[in-house]
Design a protein that fits this description.
The structure is a single chain. Helices cover 10% and strands 53% of the residues. With 421 residues, it is mainly beta.
């Protein structure tokens, strides 16, 4: 119990320093911690540390390499996205007499470095029942185009800068129960803390949800399944969407998702291969549906090889289709878009969608290494590269063509320390 109290205190401390993550699978990280991230984000069937178990499948607490003892993970991710946007506003400048700020070249986002801490623990309660706990930043978005171009081309430059900063942090207590020696089930409660800034003020609120999972293990093969409930956060008075001088509320709902995994260990404690498939229903999630997101399948494949017991080599690949739909053919002065009861100017809506929330990367290549320093301490290093993807959308402005284009790639370095006791 004393150890658990210490863990809760350290988790709270970690969260106080947490920074926003960036878009990868939609606006979710592909995984938490250097082990799972180095293996392409797998972990539904055979996670290799406590924090991966809480994030990927709460039932995994009963089957990890940390069993039958206890484990604590301290992880940090250094996230380095590179976002750029180009708006071809020749028609806008001609229409307004050339007074609109911006140009047709690429604008670089100044939001390009984030630090994301995470903590996880797994401890036995009985031989069949285990407790897990994790605190981590799981999703977010962020671009900073201040002083480069505006949402509204008819305002004074700088009045409506394109800026976004969304972050969602989770505290997730977890219980897992082993029904038979080969079959376990688990559940987590997700306590969410979300904040959103769209260029005015940061607005924060909380949400709650849950996660259910199961794993069945038969010799060298493990199969797992997981469900995550939708989780809603209301960001009160975050921005003036309809231009009436009063800031409006924007509700963003993390989508429900299901995942399936299969892992094979052809050489026990030497070689592990795992494949996962996840479905995220962005298209029915409040807020995301109104900004034109669709459902997303995420496929991942990862492997871990131990040439010697103390050394682990890891690699993987992760692919998730860009969930942001293309709205080609819009008219800037056409009917406004209805967003949560407010009429939003079509041009501003499309600029915010494409430039402000560029969750467009699809393919991630990952690698990492782990080393057992002592019987109780191990260190892990991971690297993730999300290959550049771009998205261009075209419309008209007073009968003249206009285009909005964004591109994004990402690099991240993950460090972790594991203590088994």
């Amino acid at each position: 119990m004393k150890k658990l109290v210490v863990v809760m205190f350290v988790a709270a401390l970690f969260l106080s320093f947490a920074g926003p993550s960036q878009a990868t699978n939609g606006d979710n990280l592909i995984a938490i911690g250097p082990i799972a991230r180095a293996m392409g984000g797998v972990g539904i069937a055979a996670p290799q540390d406590a924090i991966s178990a809480v994030f990927a499948n709460p039932a995994a607490m009963c089957f990890g390499p940390y069993c039958p003892g206890s484990e604590m993970n301290f992880d940090v991710t250094f996230f380095m996205p590179k976002a750029e946007t180009r708006i071809n506003n020749t028609a806008i400048n001609a229409f307004s007499g050339g007074t609109i700020s911006g140009d047709t070249g690429w604008n670089d986002s100044d939001s390009d470095f984030f630090v994301i801490p995470a903590l996880g623990i797994s401890v036995p309660i009985t031989q069949s029942l285990r407790f897990g706990f994790a605190a981590y930043g799981v999703s977010g978005l962020g671009v900073d185009y201040r002083n480069e171009f505006d949402l509204d081309p008819f305002t004074t430059p700088g009045d409506q800068d394109v800026y976004s900063n969304l972050q969602i942090l989770k505290v997730a207590p977890n219980l897992a129960y082993m029904i038979t020696p080969n079959w376990s089930v688990g559940a987590s409660v997700h306590f969410d803390y979300g904040s959103l800034n769209l260029g005015d003020k940061t607005k924060s609120n909380t949400g709650i949800g849950f996660q259910l999972g199961t794993i069945y293990k038969n010799g060298p093969i493990s199969v797992g399944a997981v469900y995550v409930s939708p989780q809603k956060i209301n960001h009160d008075a975050v921005a003036d969407f309809d231009g009436d001088g009063h800031n409006d509320t924007l509700t963003l709902e993390s989508p429900w998702s299901v995942g399936f995994g299969i892992a094979v260990e052809p050489i026990e404690k030497v070689l592990l291969i795992e494949a996962n498939a996840k479905y995220l229903d962005w298209g029915s999630a409040e807020g995301y549906d109104e900004f034109g997101w669709s459902h997303q399948w995420v496929l991942s494949l990862g492997a871990q090889y131990r040439p010697i017991p103390k050394l682990a080599l890891r690699a993987g690949i992760n692919w998730g289709e860009n969930p942001v739909e293309d709205n080609d053919g819009w008219e800037a002065f056409g009917p406004p878009v209805r967003v949560q009861g407010k009429n939003v100017n079509r041009y501003q809506y499309e600029v915010l969608r494409i430039a402000g929330f560029p969750a467009i990367v699809e393919t991630h290549l990952t690698a990492g290494i782990g080393y057992q320093v002592t019987k109780t301490i191990s260190l892990d290093l991971g690297y993730v590269h999300a290959f550049e993807n771009d998205m261009e959308e075209t419309g008209t402005f007073a009968g003249q063509p206009v285009s909005i284009e964004s591109k994004l790639y990402e690099d991240s370095i993950d460090l972790g320390l594991t203590w088994r006791f």
